[in-house]
Structure formats: C-alpha cells, structure tokens
C-alpha cells in the first residue's frame, strides 16, 4: 500500500490498478474492459450481454476516461485497446508470415507490400488481442462476447439494481409563501441578476446562458460584497495534453448516469456488488428527494443531517457545525444508513445556512480520511445551489446528487408573477431546468476531456482563488490554492451578512425585492468593475483628442480605483530603486512594436472595426490578429494611401475557417489558438444571421448558414500532436513565427514548457478576464485564472528548465495602462496584447450585447444599419497605445530600466502594497507572483535571445522544390517520382508555400506539378496543398492527410503487389481533410476516424470511414463507397455527402440533428455522383467504383444523400432570390 503509487505518471497509476484487478483473479481482457469500457450508455447497437457487463462494472468503479491507446500483456497474450472516443491513433499490419506490427503510425518497419495480409486500426473503445496459447488474433466482438457471458450480469442487475422510479413515493414539502421565499432567496445570495441572466435564460434556451465581453468584475476575494463560496473556485480545463470534447455533437460518448450508495468489494464479482441506486440525472426533483429522505427499501435507509447553525453563535459557529456534521455522517455509517441527505431547509431567522459546497466537501473529505466514503452516498438538499457552476463544484467535490429546491421554487414563482409565459407549467419548468443544467454540466466536464459524470465526480478539477489553507484541508483537500486568502471566519462573516439581508435584525429593514449586485452589468452601487462609465468616457476622450492629460486621468482612475479593487496586480507596488532619466529609456515607437491586438474574428466584429484595428496596428508597427474567421484576400494588398488592412497575425483555431496556403503565406506570425480566456476548453458558434456573403466567402461557407468551431483542434490530442501542427505551419510559411495561445490555469507553466519543446516561437498566456463575442456565462465567470498568475508561473518554469531564451512570452486579458504593461513585463512577458481597450477607443460602450448582433455602435454586429453607426478611426487606437507606451516608459525610468528586455522577469522589484486594508484581501499571499525565477546556471536567459531550430533544412520538400523549380518560377509542367517514408511529414506543404508566394491564391493550373510517391507517408501528407500540385501515393498514409487542402489533388492507393482487398483495409489515418477548402482527394481503401472533419470545399471519394466522419462539414462533397462509423455528419451544416448503403446501416449511424437523408432523385446530384466515382476509378483503379459503375442503375438505389437542413434552406432561398432578381 498504497496501491496507486504517489508521484507516478498516469500510465503508472493505470498499471497499478490493472495489476490489482489481475491479482483478484480476473483475466487481462476482462480487467481492461472494466477500466476502459466502450461508450456503452448511448450505444444502441451494442449487445445486451455486453451492455449488462459494462453496467454491472460501472457499479464497481468509474471508467478511466481520456485519450489513450494502451497496450498490455501477461506473457500469455498481448493486446491493445483504445479510448471510448478514438482520440489516439493505433494502426497495425498483419503479415502472411504471422507477424503483427502495431504502432501509432504505419511505416515504422519496412515490410514488403506482398507480405501484408491486413492493414487495420483500433476503433474507439475496441480491443485487439493476440493469444499466444491459441496462436491467433481474437476479434473484439468474439473476445468481449466471451468475457460478457461468463456471468449472468443482466439477471444480477435486474435482481439487485435499485432505480429511483422504483422507490415508494413520499410527501413533498409545501412551497414557501412569497414572503418567506424572498427572505430565503436573499439569505442565500440570490439577486435579480440570478433570475434575469442565469435561471430564466437557462430554462428558455435549455442550455447555459450566453454572455459577452468577458468578466471585469472584482475577484471574489477582492470584492467588498459578501460573495458565494462557489465564486472562489475556477474550473480547470484541458489544453494540449488532452483534448476537450464536444458534448453536443459527440453526445454519444457522454453520460450523466451514475450508481450511488454503498459500494461492494472491487475484487469480487458477485451478484450483490450491483446492489446500488441508479441515478440517471444528478439533479433530483423534489419528489425524488422526498422518496430518498423517507427511504426504507430493500435494506436501504437515509439519514438527514442539518446544514445550519444558530445565528447567535456568530462566526465561531461555522467550524463547530462542520465538525458536528462530519461526526453525524460517520455515525450514520456505523448505524447502517445507506444515504446521507445534507439539508439546509432548517434555515430560519435564527439559523444560518452553511454553504452546501463547504459542508458536502467537508463530509466527503472526512469520510475519505476515515476510509469510509465508499460505504454511503451523499445527497445535497440545497437552497443555495442553482447555477451550472454550483452543481459542477458540488459533484466535483464528492456529492452524488443535488436537489436545488429553491432554484425550482424561484422559477415557479416567476411563472406565478407573470415573468414566465403562461404556457409554462411547474413540471415543464423543472424539466427545462434539469435539461439546461445537464447540458451545462456535460459542457464543463467536456472542457476537461471527461465524458462521464462517474469520472468527474470527486475529481476536484478546480483551483481555489482566495481560500486559506485551513479551508482547503478541511473541505477541498489537495485542491490548489496558490495565493491563500480567507479562512473560516470570513466565510462565516460572508454567510452572516447574506443571512442578514433575508432576516434583518432591525425591525422594518426588510428588502421587498432581490438586490441587484451588478455582478454581470455595472451598477453604481453594485460590484466594482474594471470598466465603468467614467473609465470608458475618459479613455475615449484621451484617444480621440490625443490628450496626454486626459490619458493621465484615465490611468489614475484605472490604477487607483478599478484595477486596485478588482485585480491581483492592484495589490502590487513598485519598489523604490535607482531611477534613470526618461530620455535614457527606449522610445515609445520601439515599445509599441511589442503590442498586439487580441484575436477577434471578422464575424464576431464588423468589417469596419476589424479593418480599423489592422490599419492602426500596421501604422504602429505592432500586430493585429485575424481571429479565427480568416481574412479577405483583398486586404493583403496595400491601400492607395500607404496604409494596410492586412493582419500580421493569422490565427489558426479549431474551426480552420479560411485557413489556406495563401492565407498562411501572408502571415508574419501564425497563432494556434488552443484556448480562449473567456471560454477555455470550448469551441464557438457563429449564428447564421451573422454569416453574410463576405463572411461566407472568407470562411469558405454558405451565407445564412451557422458555423461551428469544435472545442478541440482535431489534430491536437497531445503535446506531440501540437508539435506536429507547429511543424506543419512552419512548413506552410517558413518565415513566420509560430505562436501558441494558452489560458492561465494552475500547471500552465508545465504545459508551456512542452510547447516550447515542441518548437513554438511564441507563447501567449491569456487571462480569464478577456473579452468575447459570445460565451456561456459559466465560462466567462468561472473558468481560467488571472494572467498575473499564469505569466508568472510560465516564466518561472521556462527559466528553470532553460527554455525561456527560446521563446517569446506574451500576455493579455484586460491590459489597459502603462502600469499594467510594466507589471506584466516584470512578471515575465515581453509582448503585450490589448483587445477590449482598443474596442472602447473605437466607440464600444460595454453594452455586453455582442452575441445578440445588436451592438449600438456598429462594432460587434453584421447588421448593415447598425454598422453605419461605427465612428472609430485608426488614429484613436494609435493615440491610445502610444500613450500606454509613454506611460510605461515613466515606470521604466522610475525602476531604472532602459529597455523592455532588461525589465523582463524582474519581479524582485515588485512588492505587496502597504495600503492593502481590505476585510478579505489581507489574507492573500502573493509569493507565487513575486518569486524570482530560478536559473539553472548563471547565464540562463530571462527573455528570448535565440531562434528555435525547426529542422526545415532536413525536410524532403527541399528536394521537391528543386525538382519543381521550373514549374514554380515559370509555370511549366513537371512530373517526377520519389520514395517517401513516415519520417517525411508535411509532404508538399513547403512546396505549396512557394507556389502560393509566386502565383497567389489561385496557384498553378491543374497537375502542373505531378509527384508520384511510393511508401508510407508521414503525418500531414499534402497539408495546405496548393492548386496545381498533385500527389499520387502508392502505399498508405498516416493522420491528417490533406489537412487544409487548398486546391491540390491527393490520390492514395495500395501498392500494386498488395494481396489484400483494399476496401476492407485502412489506407489513411485519422482526421483527413481537416479544414480543407478546395481540391480533390481519392482514397482506395478505408479511412480511420473523423474523415472530412470541418471540410469546407474539398471533393473526396473514400471506400469506408470510421466514427465522426463529415463532422462540422460546411462545404464540398464526400462520397463514401462503403460502411460508415457512428455519429456520421454530426454538426454538418454545409456541403453534401453521398453514401453507398446497401445494408441500410447509415440511418443508425448518422447523427440526424442537422441533416436529412434523401434518396438519389435529382438529376444534377446523380450526374455529380457518377462523375466523382468515375474520377475515383480513373485515379485509383478501384474495383468498388468499377462494380458500382457497371451496375449503375441498381447501385444508385443504394446511395443516400446526406443533406444539411440549413444548407438546403439557404440554397432554396438563394435560388428564390435569383428568380426574383431576374423578374425585376
């Protein structure tokens, strides 16, 4: 003991647990099935025996969730299994001389093509096993069927499983009258904003409410107001090391279902192990809770524990009550209770409610320490919990289920008051609330790459921001709380202050309305915000008049009021040191070159605003950022007056909108957006009403059709994948810097070290307070950390590992003044990003309506009338940023620095302000910010002094460029042969860059450069392949084939001497044609997972696909001449897929949320399909194509047209518009 070794890797811990299960007498395949089950909950075609096996074992332990390809052996067999979502590549060959070769890539060993019997890949959740004793490969279905049939799991479940619906009903408490309801709402921290911005929108939309422009309200630990304990926690999220998940489009792998209550012995496989309560949804109705509280059923009974204490006990009463609750929980176990209900219903004028999170966390941790936690379930009856973030915290810190009774009652009361429409009933309200919370919780789980609540529960995937060690150790053991903060005394003080709002001690002091505390929108008497009418007015005056005195007033207000009362940097002062003359400091014109604007896409903001920012930054010599929406090619050309609308930073985000070879070739810096400060771990969605003709053209999509950005980059599931994308992009533009955007969270320094080792040139650490055009309010308020913590940790980690000199560090997230820039520099940044402030200088008044397309000043809208109201000018941004630079120079002179480089990382010149006198902030410890980086040796760099070695001189494309020289420079056709191996990555990408630089967006005529390759191609074959280049590969290829295809043609077919049947074998890997915008691709064989993901223009033919094919597709054509995997066409909004479906399996495998399945009846479609199949036959000599064409009339009946609903509507509208225009 311990079974799970401390300080061990994830893989090591997995091995520890696997070994334990093996020693219990289970077979190796059975143990692997227990630990990495398939996504069985929503898998409708899975056998009942296998489903029962997985459900039975889900009562014993949670799944090991996340991306993994795991190999295993016990000497008698060797095998491998893949995670439930297929997020790792695992390819294998089986040879005629009885060898099996499995690796993350093909081509790791040289094997004669005529010796290859099978080319396969592991499928999501599947297992591959070689049994030495039987001397054969055992298929997944046979293997699992045998394991699942060893016991009568289905009968065991039917005998032992307890369902909520089976419990005897019980009386539900009466609803509170309006007076008592208001008191309780006030005492538990409800505000008018709670209903206006959170609860009512939650049920109306059936999902987490949307907001915009980020969070500039004071941190909870700096707030003058009593804040909910939940506000002191920030959600963690996946970035780089594992991917986030799309919980909406990939719902088939998500699940909230859990078994709760006493657990059996993990080492036994007996019927009694599944005698547990099945809870399908973590949010319990009042009826379900009433049944649980009165439970006396099949040996189960429930103990209810009061979560309140006497008000007269004051702040000391909180800890005493927590101790009592923990002891009562322990006693309940010894007395044989199966469930605990922690309830705050006893709250009254004389009894104060304990925060449900604090109490349930304390009980969970106490029972864990006493080794009793598995013997009882914890249910929370909470009037306090109401938001998605609250429920995530409660489950994340150990609660098994939650009854938010006061949230229910507040919404029901809203119906009675006429705030909700008459068609709402109490039942509909509860159902809508549960649905909205479920979607929100799944999204938060998915941000971390977790697909089941069973895995998320108790995982503590949060960081505390402003809580003292004693609180963490009692209720949140092991949770990071780097800057400490308030203890039990102040938590109790906040609770007492809230309680006094609902139950005032003075007669007649009752409030007859919920307070409006201004957490979301600024109010004069509400919460402090970084931006308020005074600061907005003063910055606009300064920018428009270029008046330094006006800027000084703005900066003073910001530094002494807004920043000081809202942000960590407001607690810092500069130490006194030897100053230098201002004239000795580098000029502002040098400093502004280090300034960038934030990534705001053309689509989220108007063309006028986007272009104004670009012009301003080009005048400065700084850099503007395209955001993820691409850029109109006309902006690449200078304007007549010498200005330029070209953005120096071209962003590459998960949607890959408009990312072509020509786009990348026109970049000074290419930024990979891993996360965004206002919504880390999430994708985005541009609604159809914002997609006008120009935006659709830039994004290679259809006007009026909404666009989805996936939560993850589908070519980044690990740090190695990120290194590959950096390599690909460096090949796509060798002269551009490659930047990676991360978001501040605990551990971001370690991630950044991996990014630096992956050869990024620039790393941006974004703060959580950054703006956004649209994001769930849960993310805006509760995900990510301040940039101060992130940049300090990253700088210190990179210096300690001697990586700092290889990369530039940048930060952003509500930088506003020269003081902010100076502090960011002292903490480790050498470049600085601005977004909200430049928008305000151009006229933004922080209405926070960006997501509604109703921006009154023409910035965050595509409405043609509203855009006319835009009054911003480039000089406003130029004026403001020059004043920021001049302001920064004064601090540099004060501190004795002549250049920014001298200043980087000198946090020894910062100290905590002596003026900090705040009832909550006094307990903060900013040591993590103020700790100087530890150099591994004296000469180790503190800022970027050297370039990364990307190894471009070794790239095979150098040979391609030589051989194609005459084609590149003169346009003369060339054709040549060349061998290729899996070390040859991004084959054709640098060649495409040279073609694009010479010939522009249209490239060369078709087949000008014909490359005939032979072998196993490395990752990213033909990435961003330019028009006029054809790659004809005889062999096979790995992941990311045709990524960003930009007009070129890719053909892949098996070697001529191969003996296997091509249409039954894997020819290319995962994520082919990701973000392709134009071109053709023909593959004789089967693709692995996510074929044509986010394809927006390529025409492709393939002979079978894995799961999630055509996901998020917005244009182009995909012809599938074989079987499809699960979740076909999820999120597909444009383009058309034609699927050959003689076995009628497509309907079961297709995600029909956004598409229709139609027969082949339209003549244009039939001609188009036949033409593509004929081209496929011509290019690959496919026997499948040949057979279909020879039996065309009969085969045509077996084709289905997959037609996106929105795309069909848009095409009809465009056709109607053309008819109407012709009749005018």
Automatic annotation (TrEMBL):
Keyword list, A-Z: 3Fe-4S, Amino-acid biosynthesis, FAD, Flavoprotein, FMN, Glutamate biosynthesis, Glutamine amidotransferase, Iron, Iron-sulfur, Metal-binding, Oxidoreductase
Pfam short name (any one): GXGXG
Cofactor(s) named in the record: FMN; FAD; [3Fe-4S] cluster
Listed transmembrane segments: none
MF (Gene Ontology): 3 iron, 4 sulfur cluster binding; glutamate synthase (NADPH) activity; metal ion binding
Domain called Glutamate synthase: residue spans: 532-897
Glutamate synthase central-N domain span: 184-468
Residue ranges of every copy of the Glutamate synthase alpha subunit C-terminal domain listed in the record: 979-1164
The enzyme's E.C. designation: 1.4.1.13
Annotated InterPro entries: Aldolase_TIM, GATase_2_dom, Glu_synth_asu_C, Glu_synth_asu_C_sf, Glu_synth_centr_N, Glu_synthdom, Glutamate_Synthase, Ntn_hydrolases_N
Ranges of residues in domain Glutamine amidotransferase type-2: 2-156
Enzyme class: oxidoreductase
Biological process terms in GO annotation: glutamate biosynthetic process
Pathway assigned in UniProt: Amino-acid biosynthesis
Family: Belongs to the glutamate synthase family.
Protein name: Glutamate synthase [NADPH] large chain
């Amino acid at each position: 003991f311990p079974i799970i070794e401390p300080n061990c890797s994830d893989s090591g811990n997995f091995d520890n647990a696997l070994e334990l299960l093996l020693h219990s007498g289970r077979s190796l395949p059975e143990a692997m099935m227990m630990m990495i089950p398939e996504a069985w909950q929503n898998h409708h075609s899975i056998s009942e025996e296998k489903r029962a096996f997985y459900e039975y074992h889900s009562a014993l332990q949670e799944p090991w969730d996340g991306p993994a390809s795991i190999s295993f052996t016990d000497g008698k067999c060797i095998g491998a299994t893949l995670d439930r979502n297929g997020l790792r590549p695992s390819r294998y060959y089986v040879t005629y001389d009885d060898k099996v070769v499995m690796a993350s890539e093909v081509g790791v060993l040289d094997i004669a093509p005529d010796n290859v019997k099978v080319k396969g890949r592991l499928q999501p959740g599947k297992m591959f096993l070689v049994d030495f004793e039987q001397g054969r490969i055992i298929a997944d279905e046979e293997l699992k069927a045998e394991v699942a049939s060893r016991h009568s799991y289905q009968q065991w479940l039917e005998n032992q499983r307890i369902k909520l619906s089976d419990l005897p009903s019980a009386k539900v408490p009466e609803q509170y009258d309006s007076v008592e309801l208001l008191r309780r709402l006030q005492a538990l921290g409800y505000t008018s904003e709670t209903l206006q911005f959170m609860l009512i929108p939650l049920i109306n939309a059936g999902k987490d409410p949307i907001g915009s422009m980020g969070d500039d309200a004071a941190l909870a630990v700096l707030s003058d107001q009593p804040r909910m304990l939940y506000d002191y926690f920030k959600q963690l999220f996946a970035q780089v090391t594992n991917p986030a998940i799309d919980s909406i489009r990939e719902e088939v792998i998500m699940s909230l279902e859990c078994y709760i209550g006493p657990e059996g012995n993990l080492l036994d496989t007996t019927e009694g192990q599944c005698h547990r309560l099945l809870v399908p949804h973590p949010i319990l109705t009042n009826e379900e809770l009433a049944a649980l509280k009165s439970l006396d059923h099949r040996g189960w009974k429930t103990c209810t524990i009061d979560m309140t204490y006497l008000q007269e006990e004051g702040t000391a009463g909180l800890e005493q009550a927590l101790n009592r609750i923990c002891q009562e929980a322990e006693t309940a176990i010894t007395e044989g209770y199966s469930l605990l209900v922690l309830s705050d219903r006893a709250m009254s004028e004389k009894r104060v409610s304990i925060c449900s999170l604090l109490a349930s966390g304390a009980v969970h941790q106490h029972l864990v320490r006493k080794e009793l936690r598995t013997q009882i379930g914890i249910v929370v009856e909470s009037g306090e919990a109401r938001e998605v973030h609250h429920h995530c915290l409660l489950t994340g810190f150990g609660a098994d289920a939650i009854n938010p009774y006061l949230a229910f009652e507040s919404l029901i009361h809203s119906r009675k008051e006429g705030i909700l429409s008459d068609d709402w009933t109490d039942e509909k309200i509860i159902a809508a609330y549960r649905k909205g919370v479920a979607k929100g919780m799944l999204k938060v789980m998915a941000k971390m790459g977790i697909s089941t609540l069973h895995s998320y529960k108790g995982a503590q995937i949060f960081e505390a921001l402003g809580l003292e060690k004693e609180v963490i150790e009692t209720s949140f053991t092991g949770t990071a709380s780097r800057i400490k903060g308030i203890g039990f005394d102040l938590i109790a003080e906040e609770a007492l202050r809230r309680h006094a709002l609902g139950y005032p001690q003075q007669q007649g002091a009752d409030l007859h309305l919920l307070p409006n505390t201004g957490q979301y929108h600024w109010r004069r008497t509400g919460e402090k915000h970084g931006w308020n009418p005074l600061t907005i007015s003063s910055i606009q005056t300064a920018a428009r008049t270029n008046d330094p005195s006006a800027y000084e007033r703005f900066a003073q207000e910001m530094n002494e009021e807004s920043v000081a009362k809202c942000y960590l940097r407001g607690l810092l002062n500069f130490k006194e040191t030897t100053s230098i003359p201002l004239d000795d400091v580098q000029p502002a014109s040098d400093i502004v070159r280090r300034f960038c604007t934030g990534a705001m896409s053309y689509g989220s903001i108007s063309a006028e605003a986007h272009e104004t920012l670009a012009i301003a930054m080009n005048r400065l010599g700084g850099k503007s950022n395209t955001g993820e929406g691409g850029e109109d090619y006309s902006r690449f050309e200078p304007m007549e007056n010498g200005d330029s609308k070209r953005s120096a930073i071209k962003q590459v985000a998960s949607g890959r909108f408009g990312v072509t070879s020509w786009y990348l070739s026109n970049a000074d810096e290419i930024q990979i957006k891993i996360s965004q400060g206002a919504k880390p771990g999430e994708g985005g969605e541009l609604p159809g009403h914002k997609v006008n003709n120009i935006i659709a053209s830039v994004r290679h999509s259809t006007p009026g059709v909404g666009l989805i950005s996936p939560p993850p980059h589908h070519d980044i599931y690990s740090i190695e994948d990120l290194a590959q994308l950096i390599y690909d992009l460096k090949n796509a533009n060798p002269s551009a810097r490659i930047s990676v955007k991360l978001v501040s969270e605990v551990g971001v320094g370690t991630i950044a070290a991996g990014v630096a080792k992956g050869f990024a040139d620039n790393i941006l650490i974004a703060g959580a307070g950054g703006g956004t055009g649209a994001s769930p309010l849960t993310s805006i308020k509760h995900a990510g950390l301040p940039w101060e913590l992130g940049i300090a940790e990253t700088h210190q980690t990179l210096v300690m590992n001697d990586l700092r000199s290889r990369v530039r560090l940048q930060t952003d997230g509500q930088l506003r003044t020269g003081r902010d820039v100076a502090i960011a520099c002292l903490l480790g940044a050498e470049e600085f990003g601005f977004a909200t402030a430049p928008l305000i200088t151009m006229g933004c008044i922080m209405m926070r309506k960006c997501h509604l397309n109703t921006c009154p000043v023409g910035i965050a809208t595509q409405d043609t009338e509203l855009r006319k109201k835009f009054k911003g000018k480039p000089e406003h941004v130029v004026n403001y940023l020059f004043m920021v630079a001049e302001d920064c120079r004064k601090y540099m002179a004060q501190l004795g620095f002549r250049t920014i480089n001298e200043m980087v990382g000198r946090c020894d010149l910062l100290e905590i302000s002596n003026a900090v006198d705040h009832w909550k902030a006094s307990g903060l410890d900013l040591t993590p910010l103020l700790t100087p980086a530890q150099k591994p040796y004296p000469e180790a760099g503190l800022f970027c002094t050297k370039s990364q070695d990307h190894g471009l001189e070794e790239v095979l494309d150098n040979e391609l460029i030589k051989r194609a020289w005459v084609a590149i420079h003169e346009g003369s056709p060339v054709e040549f042969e060349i061998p290729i191996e899996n070390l040859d990555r991004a084959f054709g990408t640098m060649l495409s860059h040279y073609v694009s630089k010479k010939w522009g967006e249209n490239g060369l005529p078709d087949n000008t450069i014909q490359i005939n390759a032979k072998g196993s191609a490395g990752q990213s074959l033909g990435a961003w392949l330019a028009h006029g280049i054809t790659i004809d590969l005889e062999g096979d290829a790995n992941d990311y084939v045709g990524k960003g295809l930009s007009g070129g043609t890719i053909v892949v077919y098996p070697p001529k001497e191969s003996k296997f049947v091509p249409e039954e074998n894997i020819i290319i890997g995962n994520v082919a044609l990701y973000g392709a915008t134009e071109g053709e691709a023909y593959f004789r064989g089967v693709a692995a997972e996510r074929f044509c993901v986010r394809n927006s223009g390529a025409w492709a033919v393939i002979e079978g696909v894995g799961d999630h094919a055509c996901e998020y597709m917005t244009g182009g054509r995909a012809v599938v001449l074989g079987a499809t995997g699960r979740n076909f066409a999820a999120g597909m909004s444009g383009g058309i897929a034609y699927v050959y479906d003689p076995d009628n399996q497509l309907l079961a495998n297709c995600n029909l949320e956004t598409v229709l399945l139609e027969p082949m009846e339209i003549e244009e479609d039939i001609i188009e399909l036949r033409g593509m199949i004929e081209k496929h036959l011509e290019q690959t000599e496919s026997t499948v194509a040949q057979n279909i064409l020879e039996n065309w009339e009969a085969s045509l009946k077996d084709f289905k047209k997959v037609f996106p609903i929105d795309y069909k509507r848009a095409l009809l509208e465009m056709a109607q518009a053309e008819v109407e225009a012709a009749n005018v």
